[in-house]
Amino acid sequence: MIDWKTVPKTELHLHIEGAAPPDFIRMLAAEKNIDLSGSFKDDGSYVWTDFAEFLQTYERACSVLQTPDDFRRLTEAVLDVSAANGVIYTEMFLSPDFCGGGDLGAWKEYLAAMTLGAKNSKTKHGIETRFIATCIRHFGPDNAEKTAEIVAKTAGGLLTGFGQGGEERHLSAGHFARAFKIAGDAGLGLTSHAGEILGSDSVRETLDAFDVTRIGHGVRAIEDPSLVERLAAEGIVLEVCPGSNIALDVFSKWKDHPIARLRDAGVKVTVSTDDPPYFYTDMTREYRKLHETFGWSLEDFQDMNKTAMLAAFCDDDTRQRMLAKFE
Questions:
Q1: Per-block average pLDDT, block size 10, for the chain (327 residues)?
Q2: Which of 195, 288, 297, 311 could tie 237 with a disulfide, CB 3.0–4.6 Å?
Q3: How confident is the model at residue 168, as a pLDDT?
Q4: Is 9 within 8 Å of 287 (Cβ atoms)?
Q5: Distance CA 208, CA 175 (A)
Q6: Which of 179, 186, 181, 229 is nearest to 204 (CA)?
Q7: Does the active-site annotation cover 196?
Q8: pTM of the full structure
Q9: Which domains does the chain have, with CATH numbers?
Q10: Is 68 within 8 Å of 109 (Cβ atoms)?
C-alpha cells in the first residue's frame, strides 16, 4: 500500500496567506492581542459556510500579518506543512499589494524576509521554493501595471514568476495585457487565474491576451472541446486544485472533476492545493483522493510531477535536480 504522505511532490499553485496554518494565525493574533473570535471552529480549523464568509475569515486571518518578519515566519510555517506532506518543490503566490502596500521599498523588505524564510526551510527540510508575484485583478489595470513595474525591478533570486489573482469577473483579460508584458520583458514566467469561477471563455481570453505558459485552475476549459484541443496543442500547463474546486462547489463531487478527462485529452495537468487549510486539504489528501477516484498510480503522479517541474519557473540546474527525484 502506498504511503501518499511520503511520495515526493511538486506544487505550483499555493497562496502564501491562504496556506497559513490556523495554529500559526492564532499564535500571531495572541502575540499582537488581536481578537479573531468567530474565525475558527471548535476543532481549530477555519470557519466558513459560503464564499462570502470564506473571504471574511480569510481577511480577518490576514489582519495579523503586519510586518516583514510576520511573513518570514509565515513562509516557514507554510513550508513546514508542505514538507511534511512530501513536497520537495513549491511555488507560492505573493502580492506586493499585501506585502508593503504597493511601495517598492517596503516590498523589497517583505521579499527579503520571505526569501530568508524559504532559505531557512530549505536548510531544515531540503524543500525548494520559488515566488510568483501577483497583481490583483479587481484593483484594476493601472494598479496591475504599477505592481508589474515593482516586480520587474525586483525579479531574480527566488522571485521568478508573475501572475494575476482576484475577482475573475472584473474586466476582461485584455485590460491587463500591458502589466503582463512588463513582467514578461523582465524575464519572469507568466501564469494567470482563469476558468475557475468563470467558464471556458475566460481561459480562451487569457490565452489570447497574455503570453502565459500556465493557467491557474483552468478546469472549466472542459466546457469547450475546441479549447481543450488548443490547450493540448499549445502545451499550456494547468495548475489544477481539485480539493479547492470541490470545496467552492465549482464541481460537486470528486468523480465529477474534469482533471482526468483533461489529462486523457492530452492537456498537461498538475496538482496543487490553492488555500489548503481553508479547504481542509493538503497534498497528501489530494493524491489519495485522486488515486481513489480515478485509480491513478504512482507512475501517473510521477508523470504529473515531471510535467510540473518542466513548467516550473526555476533555473535549469534546479529543474534537472528535481526531475531526477521523479525517475
A1: 95 97 96 93 90 84 94 98 98 93 94 98 98 91 95 97 81 92 97 91 96 97 98 98 95 97 98 96 98 97 98 98 95
A2: 311
A3: 66
A4: yes
A5: 12
A6: 229
A7: yes
A8: 0.96
A9: 18-66 (no CATH), 67-326 (3.20.20.140)
A10: yes
One-letter identity of residue 315: D
Q: Which residue has the cell 479547504?
A: 279
Residue type, 141: P
Instruction: Write the burial class of residue 84 (CB in 10 Å: 0-12 exposed, 13-18 middle, 19+ buried).
Output: middle
Identity (one letter) of the amino acid at 18? Answer: G
Closest CA to 138 of 163, 166, 178, 162: 166
pLDDT at 170: 65
Distance separating alpha carbons of residues 14 and 275, to the nearest angstrom: 6
The Cα 5–Cα 284 span in angstroms is 5
Grid cell locating 215: 493557467
* Cβ(83)–Cβ(121) below 8 Å: yes
Written as one letter, the residue type at 207 is L
Instruction: Find the DSSP H helices in the chain.
Output: 22-32, 51-62, 68-84, 104-125, 141-153, 177-185, 200-209, 225-234, 242-247, 259-264, 283-294, 298-311, 316-323
In angstroms and rounded to an integer, the radius of gyration of the C-alpha atoms of the chain is: 18
CA angle, corner 218, sides to 281 and 299, nearest 5?
A: 60
Looking only at the bridges linking them, the beta strands covering 237-240 and 189-194 are unpaired
- Here the cell at position 275 is 488555500
- What per-residue confidence (pLDDT) applies to 165? 83
Q: Name the residue type at position 262.
A: L
The whole-angstrom separation of Cα 175 and Cα 192 is: 13
Q: Which residues are 214's β-sheet partners?
A: 191, 237
Cross-strand pairs, 193: 216
| Candidates 91, 168, 196, 239; catalytic one | 196
State residue 269's pLDDT score: 98
Amino acid at 79: L
